[in-house]
Amino acid sequence: MAEGGAKGGAVDQSAQPATAQRIVDAARSLMIERDLLEVSIADISERAGTNVALVSYYFGNREGLMIAIVEGDARRAAGHLDRLLAADMTPTAKMERHIRGMIEAYFDRPYLNRLLHKLLREASPQASAKVGASFVRPVTEARRAMIADGVARGEFRAVDADLVSFAIDGACAHLFSSEQSRRTVLGDGSLDHNLIDRYVVTVTDLIVGGLLAR
Amino acid sequence: MAEGGAKGGAVDQSAQPATAQRIVDAARSLMIERDLLEVSIADISERAGTNVALVSYYFGNREGLMIAIVEGDARRAAGHLDRLLAADMTPTAKMERHIRGMIEAYFDRPYLNRLLHKLLREASPQASAKVGASFVRPVTEARRAMIADGVARGEFRAVDADLVSFAIDGACAHLFSSEQSRRTVLGDGSLDHNLIDRYVVTVTDLIVGGLLAR
From CA A90, how far away is CA A146, in angstroms rounded? Predict the structure, then answer.
């Protein structure tokens, strides 16, 4: 898997030295273990078995490292989406698979939802534009294609695909928004495979049901 | 309108002195004008025509003031929802009206989505539990009633109302998640009445369509 990013977010494997990749992996695993975005660069360097100066060398600063993490995740998501779009399946089945993939990605990478939000909202304009281009745009374009295909085949209603895309994103992500919301609504704040599977079924039925031509 | 909160979040009007209400109103209008949660207590006090010490007196600290703002908004939302539930309308029409109300509330009070998230995620456990109880719970309960009614009348499919509730929340809120997302997807980051109306139609058709018995 060609994950992890180097300066400039190049996709070229050769531009991603093993050390940079180790730093990205270390940051990702520490954010997951601690359920926290604010892991110190010192801790990340220690976990990666490298030194703090190499983080600046490869990523410039903390924001650069966070962007590299998101770009790695974005490449992974784009790979999944490319294969899904090319697959011999109905648009309905593709949309179901896509919704499952999104929800499972948020479950497997619990930092992702918050990190995307943080970078899109609070990072420098250049950084947030980069996250928009590397993550938001490919996902939106894949959905446009999936929806257009569904409309062309008569499976889906004619919808505003871009606005539907916001609704899909929000619906998939919201279970992960806060432990307190889950505790208030579900009486339990914890996420487990069983809950995730039920959420996949609920969101898929709701969204695909809402897209279907009636 | 009995908005604004006093210590303890009492609903009793007499417990909400005019000064406390002025501070809440000032904070709300400054957050809207500046599109920022981090308005200083000094600026809020100045706008309210009061002094900084009264903020501590009425709200304890900044978090207390922020909770009072959310509790005021929650009382307003609960009032709307009570009237909606009591209205002589089909569950389908109620759900449409509810979705419109949520999206318009996020548009009119642009701080609300972010403030809810911030308090639910980052505030003290007591504070986040308070936000859960005052905002998340009444909305969830109203939706449970609306959905149960729709299922009983044969308008809606049998669904997991609590998980559907997360999907609805996320779908309504996500257009407001970041200017960068809007710029990336829509080519324009700004929110206006026209976009909001289109989003209301899109989300309503998607969610209600997804709930309908087929």
Answer: 9
The pLDDT of residue A48: 95
Separation of alpha carbons B60 and B58, rounded Å: 6
**Cα B206 to the center of its chain, rounded Å:** 21
Of B129, B167, B208, the CB nearest to A202: B167
Query: Which has the closest alpha carbon to A201: B159, B140, B148, B162?
Result: B159
Could you tell me the two tokens for A109?
């990478």
Q: What percent of chain B has pLDDT over 70?
A: 93
Q: Give the three-state DSSP class for B158.
A: coil
Contact B212 A209 (CB under 8 A): yes
Question: CA separation (Å) from B97 to B104, B145, B208?
Answer: 10, 15, 11
Element containing residue A103 per DSSP (H, E): helix A91-108
- Residue of B118, B122, B174 to mutate for A, most A C-beta atoms under 10 A: B174
Domains, chain B, in order of start with CATH, read: 7-211 (1.10.357.10)
Record the tokens describing residue B132, joined without a space.
């859960």
Residue A142, C-beta contacts closer than 8 angstroms, at least 6 positions apart: A78, A81, A82, A84, A85, A98
CB B39 within 8 A of CB B30: yes
**Contact A75/A11 with Cβ under 8 angstroms?**
yes
Start-to-end CA distance of chain A, whole Å, equals 41
For residue range B64-95, list pLDDT tens digits in order.
Answer: 999 999 999 999 999 999 999 999 999 999 99
CB B23 within 8 A of CB B31: no
pLDDT 10s digits, A130-170: 999 999 999 999 999 999 999 999 999 999 999 999 999 99
Closest CA to A68 of A31, A108, A105, A98: A31
Q: Per residue in A117-134, is it b (16+ CB within 10 Å) or e — as a string?
A: bbbbeebeeebbebbbeb
| CA angle at A49 for the pair A47 and A51, rounded to the nearest 5° | 105
Residues of B in contact with A157 (CB under 8 A): 205, 209
In sequence order, the β-bridge partners of residue B212 are B156
